[in-house]
Specification:
The complex is a heterodimer of chains A (182) and B (466). Chain A is of the alpha+beta class and 182 residues long. Chain A has one domain (27-84, 100-174). Chain A is built from 3 helices and 8 strands, in the order αββαββββββα. In chain A, strands 1, 2, 3, 5, 6, 7 and 8 form a 7-stranded antiparallel sheet that branches. By secondary structure, chain B is an alpha+beta fold. Chain B has 2 domains: 21-44 and 136-378, no CATH class; 63-134 and 389-458, no CATH class. Chain B has helices at residues 2-21, 68-75, 83-90, 101-113, 170-175, 189-199, 315-323, 328-335, 339-349, 393-412, 454-458; strands at 24-35, 46-47, 50-51, 136-137, 204-211, 218-228, 244-247, 254-262, 265-268, 271-276, 287-299, 305-314, 352-355, 360-378, 431-434, 438-441. Chain B has an 8-stranded antiparallel beta barrel. Chain B has a two-stranded antiparallel ribbon with strand order 2-3. In chain B, β15 and β16 form a beta hairpin. The longest helix of chain B has 20 residues, at 2-21. The N and C termini of chain B lie far apart (80 Å). The chains are: A alpha+beta (182), B alpha+beta (466). The interface between A and B is medium-sized, with 29 and 29 residues.
Chain lengths: 182, 466
């Protein structure tokens, strides 16, 4: 009997493994895509339960890739959101003679804003400022928003652009890894 | 008067009938077979770590797994590895137990390279989509060989050496800087290796062109290409000998095409082409399937000819063929290529075999050169299939199961484990690869033979790294 249960569970696990990967749907207000132009979108992932910076940024990257596919694009470019003085991290430069990439996740650098527990004001954190992320303990965040502006592109990818991301490649990489924040 | 008119008519009719019935045939054996990558560098010239930089590849051939700095850069993309760990893997210490420092690099790097996925359990070469893109230098030149397969002239297309626009050869764009396939006059390491193996008997390809009109101008000619079971015959100088006889099998690696000949240059219709693919191990000897393919044969003054075959090839075939003759790690470190980078480059540049279910391209345009030596191409006495070598069955199975797992992984996006019998994690030089990319010494035999019986091992040494 016990053996039967064990085999049953193993069988279910094996079957579950055969299902194509699916990212759970996001709750209301977790993801928004605001059109800023014909192919330009501001994407925001918002939540209240902070897990980790890479985890939440990867979810945003996945949604950027999916949006690109849904809009009929093949790739997208990230428009870095650098405020005045945020120059501690150099702007990535094109290198047509060097290696080409389908994506460089290290260059997917969205900007954060967050509220610490009990705080009324939002605090901005930029990956280009040179400041560590964030100064306070992330676990004390009560609200956060991660945002990125992207341009959806069609046709052959400009793979010499360090801020270019091939949508399907990013989606394939991340589909098994991400879930929406709460 | 009537008699002489009848005579003239009869002579004319006979002449016409004779001309139409004058069937002709030309045969060739393929003496050299390589991807149509156009080398633009300067042979034997290096600049720092740039190997033979040129107009095709401004930074030269790939140097994946060639220098510690590059290895560190690749492994730093693996998020579960700490910077200290990356540094140690890129610069592995040669211990007192190891007499061969190069071997330490080889085994450490091939093991680490096999586990670069988003978690430490995922084997990378079977699941390349689960690793970050380490980057692949691409061809920047505008000149390339091949065919205009889609009849269009697009921004990324090449211009042929004789000025034809719209040449589709995105495989050259994607892989043309890959070290083992790049070099002056076909001296890339895998170009040389695969051709050595072909000439030594691994496989033989023959071409037969026939028609009923003028062999120099015939708009109803036929071109056949396919596998021959007969080993290539060399002359006293070691070159491929001319005018020997080879059987042409009507096997799964055979295609018959309509062709037109103008001023001696043969150009076929556009159709699916089956013929042997490039191989350097027996387990790779299988069908190269060109969709919307085409063949051109241009005669040379000395009786030889230059052939070009092109078409769209399935990216999964190209990837698995290149990666799994042995294992992705062995191949990558030895040849200074990175199959994760090659995978992404293939998918990024794919331009054919549109898949409406996925909305993506499954094929990439390609072209291969054939150097043809005159031969007599004949039918076999009785129908026969491509012979298989029983001694290679285990290695062939290793390739098949690994390729099947990869294709399943890529198609479903469900990371697949290393299947039983695969060559991916089995021992090379007595060193296995453990989960997480850990080399484990003193285990097993070599490669796919690691699980073979003592009796089988006693039959002779493995040629795993020949």
């Amino acid at each position: 009997m016990k053996l039967g249960i064990v085999f049953g569970i193993l069988g279910c696990l094996a079957l579950a493994q055969e299902h194509p990967p699916m990212v759970p749907p996001a709750g209301p207000g977790v993801f928004t895509a605001k059109p800023l132009g014909r192919d330009t979108f501001k994407l925001i992932v918002a939540g209240h339960v902070f897990t980790s910076r890479p985890e939440i940024e990867r979810y945003l990257a996945y949604r950027a890739a999916r949006l690109t596919v849904d809009k009929g694009g093949q790739w997208f470019t990230l428009k870095e959101d650098r405020a005045a003085g945020e120059t501690a991290v150099p702007v990535p430069v094109r290198d047509p003679a060097g290696a080409r990439y389908s994506f460089r996740m290290n260059y997917f650098r969205p900007v954060w804003r967050y509220k610490l527990t009990g705080a009324a004001e939002w605090t901005r954190w930029s990956p280009f400022s040179g400041a560590p992320f964030p100064a306070a303990d992330p676990k004390t965040m009560s609200d956060f928003e991660v945002s990125a502006e992207i341009v959806v592109r069609k046709g052959p990818m400009d793979d010499a652009d360090p801020l270019a991301f091939e949508a399907w490649a990013v989606s394939d990489l991340l589909v098994n890894q991400v879930s929406p924040p709460k | 008067m009537l008699q002489s008119t009848l005579k003239v008519c009869c002579v004319t009719l006979l002449a016409v009938a004779g001309a139409e019935a004058a069937r002709w045939e030309k045969g060739y054996v393929v003496a050299f077979y390589d991807p149509a990558y156009r080398f633009g560098g300067r042979a034997d010239y290096s600049r720092g770590t740039d190997i033979e930089p040129g107009v095709d590849c401004p930074r030269g051939s790939t140097v994946h797994f060639a220098v510690p700095q590059q290895v560190a850069q690749s492994l730093s993309l693996v998020r579960w590895r700490s910077p200290k760990e990356v540094e140690e893997l890129a610069n592995p210490p040669a211990t007192g137990l190891t007499r061969d420092p190069a071997g330490v690099y080889f085994h450490t790097w091939r093991a680490a390279s096999a586990f670069r996925g988003w978690n430490r359990e995922i084997e990378t070469y079977i699941n390349p989509f689960a690793a970050e893109d380490p980057g692949q230098p691409q061809v920047t030149s505008r000149i390339g060989e091949g065919f205009n397969l889609d009849g269009k002239v697009k921004p990324g297309d090449f211009v042929s050496p004789d000025g034809e626009k719209g040449i589709d050869n995105q495989l050259y764009r994607a892989w043309g800087c890959d070290a083992p396939w790049r070099g002056a006059n076909g001296n890339g390491t895998l170009v040389l290796r695969s051709n050595d193996k072909m000439v030594e008997g691994l496989y033989t390809i023959v071409v037969r062109i026939s028609g009923n009109k003028d062999p120099m101008n015939d708009d109803e000619a036929t071109l056949e290409i396919g596998y021959s079971p007969d080993q290539i015959v060399k002359d006293a100088r070691g070159n491929v000998g001319a005018d020997y006889s080879y059987r042409l099998l009507h096997s799964e690696q055979y295609t018959k095409l309509k062709a037109r000949i103008k001023d001696g240059v043969v150009e076929t219709e556009q159709a699916d082409i089956h013929m042997p693919q490039i191989a350097w191990f027996e387990n790779q000897t299988r069908d190269a399937f060109f969709r919307q393919g085409k063949i051109r044969v241009a005669p040379n003054a000395d009786g030889t000819a230059a052939g070009l075959v092109g078409g769209y090839r399935d990216f999964r075939d190209l990837y698995t063929q290149n990666a799994f003759a042995q294992s992705g790690g062995v191949q990558g470190v030895r040849e200074h290529e990175d199959h994760v980078a090659l995978y992404y480059a293939l998918r990024r540049n794919a331009d054919g075999m549109y898949n409406p279910k996925t909305g993506r391209y499954d094929g990439i345009s390609s072209a291969y050169r054939l150097k043809l030596v005159p031969a007599f191409v004949v039918e076999p006495d009785k129908p026969m299939d491509i012979p298989s070598r029983i001694s290679e069955a285990r290695r062939r199975q290793a390739f098949d199961v690994t390729a099947a797992a990869t294709i399943k992984a890529v198609d479903t996006l469900i990371p697949q484990p290393v299947p039983a019998g695969s060559g991916e994690l089995t021992a090379t030089d007595g060193i296995e690869i453990g989960v997480g990319g850990v080399p484990i010494r003193g285990r097993g035999g070599r490669g796919a033979r690691a699980t073979s019986s003592t009796e089988e091992k006693a039959k002779g040494p493995s040629d795993e790294r020949r």
